[in-house]
Hints:
Helices cover 46% and strands 20% of the residues. It has helices at residues 12-24, 35-45, 61-70, 86-94, 107-127, 156-167, 175-182, 192-205, 227-239, and strands spanning 4-8, 28-32, 49-53, 77-81, 99-102, 130-133, 136-139, 144-147, 150-152, 173-174, 213-216, 220-223. The strands form three sheets. The protein has a five-stranded parallel β-sheet with strand order 2-1-3-4-5, with helices on both faces. A four-stranded antiparallel β-sheet has the order 6-7-8-9, with helices on one face. Strands 10-12-11 form a three-stranded antiparallel β-sheet. It is elongated.
Amino acid sequence: xxxxxxxxxxxxxxxxxxxxxxxxxxxxxxxxxxxxxxxxxxxxxxxxxxxxxxxxxxxxxxxxxxxxxxxxxxxxxxxxxxxxxxxxxxxxxxxxxxxxxxxxxxxxxxxxxxxxxxxxxxxxxxxxxxxxxxxxxxxxxxxxxxxxxxxxxxxxxxxxxxxxxxxxxxxxxxxxxxxxxxxxxxxxxxxxxxxxxxxxxxxxxxxxxxxxxxxxxxxxxxxxxxxxxxxxxxxxxxxxx
Length: 241
């Protein structure tokens, strides 16, 4: 099974052992020892599955999982932890985990669970490889953006910004939220960089159709149809049988 797996555990010996076992099974593996490093690596490594310890030195594994889901990252997660109480397992699954393996564990069991989760989720991942809003579309497999069928060339940061706006279409996002989710949680810049990149993005995306990226004064930005388009869409829906 060809897949990339990210192992997140602050015990170096255990992380290395798990990574080695997964590589032996043919997986491409990256390993990090903290939640912050995991969040920073996910957009670059683009794992097909994350083996995620809950007890991490900076951010809990559950919080890492929640932040990824907020970013629109639907990568399946197998929690790996010493906590084996029922409420801990329920909490992990409620946070967005797909499976829960308790320590101590056998490598054979972990690999089997990884394979099961990958098989279960890959069909769904193929269905959701395209994100769309109005005539704007992101093809995540091809890493392409099109507006009205026309290819829009974006830098990696512009792509991440547009994707975050698109997966939260209709929801007003503050500059701080955008900074945290597009420039990572330890970025030292200020809100001005968001305004600058939104301006870049508008020139490219809104050049091919009605404006979709809107400023909400003193709050932030939102991806939505212009008012006239929304009214027309609403009227058509109201008049449909």
